[in-house]
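All the exercises in this workshop are built on plain-text protein records. Sequence and backbone structure share a record, each on its own labelled line. The structure tokens are whole numbers drawn from a learned vocabulary of backbone shapes. The record below serves as our worked example for the rest of this section.
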Amino acid sequence: MRKIVCFGDSNTYGYITETGRRYKKKVRWPGRLEKLLGDSYQVVEEGLCGRTSAFEDKTEPGLCGLDSIERVIKEQEPLDLLIVMLGSNDCKTQFGAAAEEITEGVKKVIQKARESSSEEFDILLIAPAMMTERIADSGFGSEFDMRSVAVSRELAKNYQALTEHEKINFLDGSLVTRVGEADGLHLAEEGHQMLAEAVYQKILEIMEHE
């Protein structure tokens, strides 16, 4: 059985904007992905609300992906594919980070993931679907501003350049899914479905070239 680990933030966790709770596994994109892939695949969800790439949240410590990726890899190895989808939380105003700085943080996560395992595995980096101006009027408006929205729109081109340099796989989330209207940040049910289908197709491509 092949193992896929999905390492991400609240959009991998399955956060529901309207209730603050979590979508059921059959709704979340990793759960949908596992169903699409069938019995020969195990999809492990490692989503955490608020997770960043390499930034330490000043108000809620313990959310830095760079600090937890080694544990995740060691707990889950051997694995065949690591999917990383981070960057949205790095756009928070408290960090004031440019897209290039966020990309550097993601690079460190990927490199540490590779260093943490004695066995090689494929990596798929997903640029999160860009946030929209709706976020200003949502419950997250105090954490993100219009600059955050602008930075989120620059992540994909920077991530793509990173994947070419690191020789890993890339998927632009903004081209295959979209954030929900409720807050302009989180995927709604339709968004999870769209992303799962796109990742499924991408995995088939990856496996074909093995």
Observations:
- The mean pLDDT is 96.
- Strands lie at 2-8, 41-47, 81-85, 122-127, 169-172.
